[in-house]
Amino acid sequence: MSSREEILARVKKNQPPLTVLPADLTALIQYPNPMEMFGIVLDGIGGTMYPVKDYEEMIGLIKTQFSNLPRVISTIPELKELTEKNWEGQDPHSYENVDVAIIEAHFGVAENAALWFTESLMGQRVIPFICQQLVVVVHKKDILSNMQEAYQQIADSSYGFGAFIAGPSKTADIEQSLVLGAHGPKNMTVFVLA
Amino acid sequence: MSTGIKDHAALSDIFNQDEARVDWHDETLWFVRAKRDKAANTLSEWEALRENASQIKDHVLSNLHDYLSEFESNAQKNGITIHWAADALEHNQIVHEILKAKEITRMVKSKSMLTEECHLNEYLQKNGIEVIDTDLGERIVQLAEEPPSHIVLPCIHKKKEEIGELFHEHLGTPKGASDPQLLTAAARVHLREKFLTRRAAITGVNFAIAETGEFVVCTNEGNADMGAHLSEVHIACMGIEKIIPKRANLSVFLRLLARSATGQPITTYSSHFRRPREGQEMHLILVDNGRTQQLGRADFRNALKCIRCGACMNTCPVYRRSGGHSYHTAIAGPIGAILAPNLDMKQYADLPFASTLCGSCTNVCPVKINIHEQLYKWRQVIVKEGYADPKKAIAMKAMEFTLSNPSVYRNAGKAGRWVMKNIPFLVNNKLNAWYNQRDMPTPPQQSFREWYKKNNNE
Question: Where is the LUD domain (chain A) (predicted)?
Answer without folding.
Answer: 95-192
